[in-house]
Structures are given as C-alpha cells and as structure tokens.
Queue: 2 jobs
Job 1
Amino acid sequence: MHKKPLFLLIGTSLLVPVAALLLAQDSRQKPQAQKTLDIYFLDTEGGQSTLFASPSGESLLMDTGTKDGAGQQVDRIMAAIKEAGIQQLDYVIVSHYHGDHVGNAAELANRLPIRHFFDHGPFTVELQPNRAAAFNSYLTVRERARATVPKPGDKIPVAGLDVEVVSSAGQLLTSPVAAAPGAGVPNPACREASDKVQDPTPENYESVGIVVQYGRFRFLDLADLTWNQEEKLVCPNNLLGTFDVYHTTRHGTDWAGSPPLVHGARARVAVMNNGAKKGGTLDSWRIIHGTPGFEDLWQEHYSELVDKEHNPPENFLANLNETDHGYTLKMSVRSDGSFTMKNERNGFTKDYPAAKGAALTSNR
C-alpha cells in the first residue's frame, strides 16, 4: 500500500483549522445582509392590494384588487408573491366587500393556499346587482375557509410584525395603541375637524383598518374607512399615534383623508393607491402636503383629475397614464425605522434614514 509522507499528513491537518479560522474571520468581517419587511403596493387601477412579506417568512395580503376579464390584476398579485419567495398566503385581510378590494379573493384561493382570512363578517349592506358579484364569489370561498371577524384591538399574528386592528364592522378602537409614539395625547389637528355627510356606499363604514409596526417603523392603512370615523380615531385624543408611512384612505378621494387624521399621523411619506381618474384630488393633495414634517407622496397613477403641479414628480409615479399600468411600488423596511422606496417602472429608489433629516436619493 502506498503511504503518504508523514510531513504531508501533518501539513494537511494544520491547513484545516487554519482555513476554518479564516472563514470564521471572513464571516465576521462580512455580516449577512439584514432581512427587511418588504411591502408591495400593487397596481389594481384604483383598487387596493398590498402585500407584506415579513422577515420571518410569513405573509399578509391587505385586499385583493378588482377582478378583470383578462385576469391582469390577479396576475400582478401572483407576480409579487413569486418575487417575495412566498409559497402560501398566511393571512389575507378583506377590508370590505367592494369589488375593488375583494374582487380577486376567490381566484387567489384557487391559485395558492391561504391559511386564514380576516374580514368584517359574512354580510354586506350593498347587495345591488352591480355591487354584489365580488362579495358573492368571496362568500363561497369564505364558507369553507378559516375566517375570523376581528374586533378593534385584536392582533393579526404575523410572525415578526405587530399588526393591530383599529376598525372593523363599524366598530372603532376606543383606547390608545399600546406603546405607540404619540398615542393617547390631545391632537391639535382636531381644530380642523368637520363632519361630512356619508356618500351612498355604506359598505366603506365596515372597513377593517390596521396599524403595522416592525421595529421602529409604523405604517397606517385604514382601507376605505369614512372621514367621520377617521376623526373619531384621532379626536380629541390621537389613539393611533404617529407614523412613518400613511397609505391614503379611500384612494386619495375627498370622502376620507381628514386633516385631523392625516396631520395627526404626521407621516413623512404617503402612498396613494389611486387610478388615473380615481383619487388624487386637489383637496387630498393639499391635506397630505400640509402634514408637519411631510417629505414625499408616491402614487400608483398620475392623477388626471388635477394638473401636473398637483401630481408628484415622474419618479414618484408608478404609472404615468391610463394605458400605462401594472407597475408596482416596493418598500423595503429595516427594523431601525429606515426604509427604501423603489419604483419598479424605472428602477428609481429613494432611501429614508431612520433619523430625521434629508433623505438620500439614488438611481439604480
């Protein structure tokens, strides 16, 4: 039998621990990239569908957009799910039963596993033929799915996130969100409070609204909750606290987005899920830009309801005209409260540091 020289065996045995030591030192010098909470604001052309991909690997989908004949909107949702590396939807919130929010719930349930639905209950006050189709299709799925009707103050248990329900089935939070900055204190913006007569779409009154927290980052999404309900959540005391990002209520129309809510939330960034001819009104623009410390508005679409001066710059618009659609705004959030916004139409990104101050801009 051929034997290796003794000095070669000794040399080889010495190389193993040295190599392991070098690898360990290299791993200390090059820490792994921090996982982020990724939020996809999907273009449902004036509806809503927002995907939260938690650093834990769990997922939450807030609403499902509009069912369209070509299936484009559900395809966009599925594309974001694939990009996020998600194999199932752990939680789906159906905020209310208008077609632009519940439209693709049944189709999504056909395409991938959904562990748990949250909604305002198996009823709707709007059963007119032109409004009931999406609700009826979802109800068929709901009857055989695991579904919960949350109450304000309940938590949706997405691992790695704190998701609290603040409105549901016409009920509103009555005590401050625990440990939230600014929660429970008098809201000076309530001097701007003024009630509105509700428009004839009472299903909005039932909306499930949520507050999402990841580390020091806070996000507000009240779906299509009404103007008067918003004010009850923040007047005379602000029960919700302050936020980094405000997802505009009711698509940036004049039926929601009251000054006490928007100015009390003090978000430095707002994201609007509008359509080319739905939302993005002049009053909405003015209220959002009147927020103390406000920095940027990002919109799903260029609003044709106002002029260019009252739209964001092109880099902050996912879709530039009525025929230009399907592009996503993506937010990547770190636990220190910093985050990055990306326009997937052109790759433009903007970084928002955790500390107060000017944000850094880059093109990638």
Note: Confidence is low (pLDDT under 50) at residues 1-27, 357-364.
Job 2
Amino acid sequence: MTDARVLLREAGFHPKKAFGQNFLVADGVTRAIAALCVPDGEDACVIEIGAGLGALTARLAERARVVFAIERDRDLVPLLTRELSSERVHVVEADAKTTDFQELWARGQAGTRVLCGNLPYQLTGPLLQRATELAPMLHRVVFMVQAEVADRLVALPSSKAYGGLSVFVQAAFEVRKRLTVGTGAFYPAPRVTSAVVELLPHCPRKAEESEVFRLLVRRAFGMRRKTLRNAWRGLAESEQRLAEVALEAGVSLDARGETLDVTAFDRMARALNQTCPALKLNCCY
C-alpha cells in the first residue's frame, strides 16, 4: 500500500474540506484499530465507512475475511481500486448514510459483522444514529471520532459531558474508549485530538428507541436547566397524571434530565406509552 501522501501527490489530489478529509497516515494507529475491529482468529466481514486512501483498509484486509471499503468521493475511488481491490477488498462508491449494509454483510458471508470508520465531524451524528439502528445485526462498531465526542459517548449521568447523544448510543451499545489519537496521525492535521471508541451491542437493548423515548430525551436535555416536571410538561393530559406516570416509572420529576440513566428514560417511555398511546402522534419536539 503506497503512503497516502505519496498517492495524493502523484494523483494531483488535494483533501476536500467539504468532505472533512483528514487522512489517517500513522501505521501504528491503523494496526491498532484493525486489531480492535478484528481480533486474532476471528472470521469477520468488515464494512469501513470513508475508506479515504485506504491506510486502514489495507490493515483490515490482513485480518478480515472480506472488507467493503465505502467511499463517496468519486475522485478517490479509482485510487482505492488500483491500490487495494482484490478478492478480499471490495471498493464501493456510495454514501454511508444510505448504503444497504445488510446486503453487504450477506455478500461477505462471514461470522462476525463489523462496522468501522474515521468519521468526518459533520457526519458523526447521522452515522452514529445509523449504527444504533443497525445494532441488532452487528457484533462490533469501531469509530474514530473527535475526542470531545468520545467523552460524550462514554459519559455517565450527572457528569458535564452526559447528554442526549450519550443516552441514545448507550441505549444500544456498551461504549468503550480505546485509543486517543493526536493530530500528527493525520494528513492534513486536524485542529483537534481524536479518539477511537468501541461499541458493543447490548442484547437485548437497554432501551427501545421509540418516538416517545426520543421525545423524553430531547426535552430533558433541550431544557437542561429545568426540572423534568417543567421539561416534560404537556406530555400527559394533566400534571397530576404525569406525576402518576413518573411515580410508576420510578422517576422523580424534581430531578433534572442529566441525572437519569438510560433505563430510567426507558421506564418512563414505556409507562407513558401505556398511559398516552397517542402521544407520539400528537406531540413533537
């Protein structure tokens, strides 16, 4: 595999800010990420989001049965194909937000299904959401994200970093922060430190991400300084009924949303669903 910077120079290609392109060039980091994605001896099919110039792809191919390298930048696809395309590596020109991952895993015919990637900052939220939706069919997710985002993903209730993103991702996954990666590992160097997180699906999920669950979480953190009594006002036919539902769910309305863990939001959503089944049709946030 040719060094990413050499590939860029030879192709006359310049990283695109619109695509958030900061190419991973540190071989030690790519090897460490590949080992997280595919432990020794595991039979895996890996889908890599945003393969870029293939530095990580090449290391994944040394460990997995098959790798589907997704890249949406059509200018990079010929370079990736020339350098890496083989029986084990399939370069896919596509947008990861809409790609049919299930079809790719079916093609891979491997025992373990892995999703990984160095996520562009502007797409981190949507791609984490896709991962939570895919959690039931996944064995492991390994993402490179901004260090600040990683801190939010692993944050515990009542901590400063804990918020809606923490709840939504922790509802589907056990989250582990595995590596901190400095700016020098990329070309061009980003302005912020990055981190690698490993997401392991809960089976069953800690919480069902229903419309009501999402509504409760968004209101709780959208009005972070308010008590849940105020943040959730109007979600039942009366304040008294809301208090009864909260009591049934074991949730104090005098608390703030940042103190509730995932299971507390889930209990409240289930109790509210039973009491107000039309809520998801009548309320929005």
Note: The longest strand covers residues 173-181.
